[in-house]
Amino acid sequence: MQVQVVDYCASDAAQKFVESLRNTGFGVLTNHPIQQALVEKIYQDWYQFFMHDEKKSFAFDVEKQDGYFAPEISETAKGHTIKDIKEYYHVYPWGRIPEQLKEDVLAYYKMASDLASELLDWIEKNSPADVAELYSEPLSNMIMDTPNTLLRILHYPPFNGTEEPGAIRAAAHEDINLITILPAANEPGLQVQAKDGQWLDVPSDFGHLIVNIGDMLQEASQGYFPSTSHRVINPTGENSGKSRISLPLFLHPRGEVVLSDKHTSESYLLERLKELGVK
């Protein structure tokens, strides 16, 4: 098992990319259309936001799930009892966004959403016929005009020795959504679990774009595309004193989209949010 690094501009990019998703749940793109200068600016500007008390005035809304999530109310991964070491902000175009950060982050949201639509087309076109028949509508159509796609700006703070024993930056988990698009973070740490249980580093050179399958696509494909466990491990040595900023975009279908005989997108999401303790 190895996550493939695929040149987005190559003639066989779609085939190789989807093959990697099928085998590992992850694929990595180079030469992609996401503007790296914009990503870097967002990392820098949101780092400053997390360093100031202004963030507390954007405390998250329990019902809408937008806004700032402080470390003490951070997620506890499914199957775990200790909260992750992180704070984060949920961005929706309709939600609250600090005015000075709005233009750049919404530009990125649109740019990444447009690419996601193309990648979902790649996935559908490279699905076996019997798997493609399972999709209740074209995969890219599932996210068209959706209000549910979530951009999460994550800040993993430097370590200072007061961390709870056993806590890590992001405990092993699977994503809830269809696919996730993630520019490589400013610091390493992302790992994916192989079929034999070993943890492997995901290729995360700065400029790489990481994409992974979420539970909703696993559900819609009846397991053909695996939603694999991944985590962010704790830094060591001199890296312990560094913050880590991450910018995942979680592509969620419209609430009424049928994923399977058991679930719509809305019912699946509600079930998982309750498991995470944030709903």
In short, what is this structure?
The protein is of the alpha+beta class.
If you had to describe this structure to a student in words, what would you say it looks like?
- With about 280 residues, this protein is α+β, with helices and mostly antiparallel strands.
- It contains 7 helices and 13 strands.
- It has one domain: B-lactam Antibiotic, Isopenicillin N Synthase, Chain (Jelly Rolls), CATH 2.60.120.
- Strands 1, 2, 3, 4, 5, 7, 10, 12 and 13 form a 9-stranded mixed β-sheet that branches. A 4-stranded antiparallel β-sheet has the order 6-11-8-9, with no helix packed on it.
- α2 crosses α3 (about 100-125).
- The two termini are about 35 Å apart.
- The model has no long low-confidence stretch (mean pLDDT about 95).
Count of helices?
Answer: 7
What is the total number of structural domains? 1
How many E-type strands? 13
Overall 3D form:
globular
Secondary structural class:
alpha+beta
What fraction of the residues are assigned to beta strands by DSSP? 15-25%
User: Which fold name corresponds to the CATH topology?
Assistant: Jelly Rolls
Main sheet overview: 9 strands, mixed
Element string (H = helix, E = strand): EHEHEEHHHEEEEEEHEEEH
Low-confidence stretches: none
What is the fourth-level CATH superfamily?
A: B-lactam Antibiotic, Isopenicillin N Synthase, Chain
CATH class: Mainly Beta
**Average pLDDT reading:** 93
